[in-house]
Amino acid sequence: MNERSKRFVGKIFWNYYSNAFREEEFLAGMPPKLEAREWGFIPIYLLPKIVMRRHISFQSPSEMKKFVLKNIPAHIYHSSAYYKYPGADKMEKKGWEGADLIFDIDGEIGRGGYSQMLLKAKEEAVKLKDFLMDDFGFVEREMLTVFSGGRGYHVHVRDGAILKLRGAERREILDYLTANSLDVKNVLRTTAVRGDYGAKSGYFYEETNSGWGRRVWGYVISFLKYIKDLDEEDAIEKIRGLRVGRKEKLVKNVSKEDAFKMLTSIKNEKIFDMARNGKIISKELGNLVERVVESSVEDLSIKGLSPSVDEPVTSDIKRLIRLPGSIHGGSGLIARMVDDLDDFDPLVDAVIFSEEEKKIISDRNMEVEMMDNTYKIKKGENKVPEFVVVFLICRGVAEYGC
Amino acid sequence: MRVELKKIYKYPFLEETKDYIRDSDISLEDITEIGFSEILERGKRRILDALDGKEHVYDKPEREIFSYSTANIMLSCIKDDYLIKRYALFESKRVYKSMVKEDDKFIERVDQSLGVRSERDNKEYKIHFTDYLRYGTGMRDPRWKLINKRVCKGYVYLSKENFLRILQEAYRRKINDDLPLNVPDEICKRMRGNINEIKKKLNEKKASFMRYEFSEINKDHFPPCMKFLVSEIKRGSNISHSGRFALTSFLSSVGMSRDEIIKIYRSSPDFDEEKTRYQVEHITGSSGTVYRCPSCATMKTYGNCIGEDEDCRWVSNPMGRYYKGLKKQLSTNLHQGAGYPR
Ligand code: SF4
């Protein structure tokens, strides 16, 4: 970002914040107990150098407004923790009094570009919220979902019961959600069965008393049902496509022949019914189930969830989270609070700047999807709406052309 | 009330027990009088039994019911961290053993006074997941990990045994947190005889740890996580199974012998020579596999990466962090030796 771009971005961010502090929606994004939070800012004028000014505290939004307008920030963060002395410069001196539980989901960079990544992240965020409601018993209004402005979503939980949880305890929750350290042996019991079921021998699967056990077994059964009713060709392809991630070394890919045997064995009503009750009496089916179990864990667990867990012992920048309603200085998008994830499209709903055309000098050819449009940008000078201008300058791939 | 005494005297934290003591009108001062020497004696026994790792035997409910508070007073006069932790551990184990024999109705009374809200659901108990995490996170067996439990709508479902283990842990923490109480010197003085006897036993016990001082191995360069684990043990805290595993494999990799490693664990409140030896031998290769020190990523997952600092950058295993420190030291020594300008 050159000086001219910085001046431009600085000016329009200033405009945003000078109005924002009057708006209900923005003020609603302020975390509860604002005065007990530590704040951190990355100023624009030092960009591209990322300098974090932290250990700052405010008594009120208006005090914060003064600060923000004086030092236009590219990023605004607040601590998930509550402190007695949030402004103290040493972690030990702050006096930790509790912390929100915040989950941070990032989309994984991959094919399909930014918008695909955001879609992926959204799926995971939906899954996360389901877990939080079904398993942990939170209700919708106890969770604040926020688009991060960057690659994903943040879910803030501020229910009183979790505030005092310590680092290791929070990590347990994270392990639960990501199925980290899940050993299927611990949640599904298998016992060998012999001859009693009119067939040779096999396993007897049993749920242990665990939520994950039920999830995994439920997944297995619905997968088998689904395969059973598929065209033969599709079914075989599905079987062969089962990912056997973690233990790849141990399992060879299924041959067409074996896949066919597996399929035949579920197609037999009697065998399928027994499987539903956990009695797996053919070797082929046993093999198949093992694979399904493994890929179920992949599919059911939440991906991209980073351990932004609060650990009062270590000091770590992760413990600061972007202020809902503030601008992400790496995208020019706003960290928008989301009511209904299904309906939310960050590339429309988090765009705040105008459509007024402005010039930019791009350093490459590219396409930008925003506001339901695709903007083709060529290397060199381009005229595009202001929101695209800000987006590209913030991403660091173009400069302001006045 | 009479009938109840036989039951409640084993559970000093119950409201009924506290009421009983209150109604009896025996004051702190009274207890230190000659006539009550048996109560004092029993209080002392509770502590000495914990120190020896013996189970405290009860026979006279009407005396025993007071001995709990006298034990607390003595512990508060002595104010020794290790002793309190050790006592908390054994006292809570004792309570667990008697709770196992109680029926569900009675258990319901118990949990309320320990601050764990629970509900019965058929044969199981359900408790809020935050309560579960508070007390279950320190448990060593992976079966206690949340992921291996049934979690539904905010509640964790537990068998009676598991639930009682949680109560045991809640009780242990409660003792740890409550003690030492503020006891006037006057009272401590009156119990001098008993207190001195405990102190003597305590010192004998401590002498037997033979503090190991990391002679050859350069402890200064231990990574923060390992320093933390060692200091936790020295403070008398229980460390998690994964923590023990990490520390043992680390110490063994830096060249410490099995006996030396066992010595380090000796100051742990729940030290059990045989078990520790078995574990240490297992990890250091008796089973045919020598376990390597877990990576930083694994350390993080289990909450054992504590105190990560500048020198931890670019290292992926605490061993790497240790060697990095050693090398740095070595090169400063060299530089200084080579007489570089200041
Ligand atoms: S980063 Fe690695 S070496 Fe450093 S404290 Fe954490 S686990 Fe230990």
3D architecture notes:
- The complex is a heterodimer of chains A (402) and B (342).
- With 402 residues, chain A is of the alpha+beta class.
- Chain A has helices at residues 3-20, 24-28, 61-70, 91-94, 113-134, 167-178, 184-187, 211-228, 232-240, 256-267, 269-276, 283-300, 346-349, 386-395, and strands at 39-43, 53-56, 73-79, 81-83, 96-99, 101-106, 143-147, 152-157, 188-194, 201-207, 279-280, 305-306, 320-322, 337-338, 357-362, 366-370, 373-377, 380-385, 398-400.
- The longest helix of chain A is centred in the N-terminal third of the chain and has 22 residues, at 113-134.
- Residues 308-318 of chain A have low confidence and may be disordered.
- Chain A is built from 14 helices and 19 strands.
- In chain A, 38% of the residues lie in helices and 22% in strands.
- In chain A, α8 (211-228) packs across α12 (283-300).
- In chain A, β9 (188-194) and β10 (201-207) form a beta hairpin.
- Chain B is mainly α and 342 residues long.
- Chain B has three domains: 2-79 and 187-203, no CATH class; 99-174, no CATH class; 219-335, no CATH class.
- Chain B is built from 17 helices and four strands.
- In chain B, strands 1-2-4-3 form a four-stranded antiparallel beta sheet.
- In chain B, a hairpin with a 2-residue loop joins β1 and β2.
- Chain B is globular, with a radius of gyration of 24 Å.
- The complex binds iron/sulfur cluster.
- Iron/sulfur cluster binds next to α12, α16 and α17 of chain B.
- Residues 223-225, 296, 299, 305, 307-308, 312, 315, 318, 321 of chain B line the site of iron/sulfur cluster (SF4).
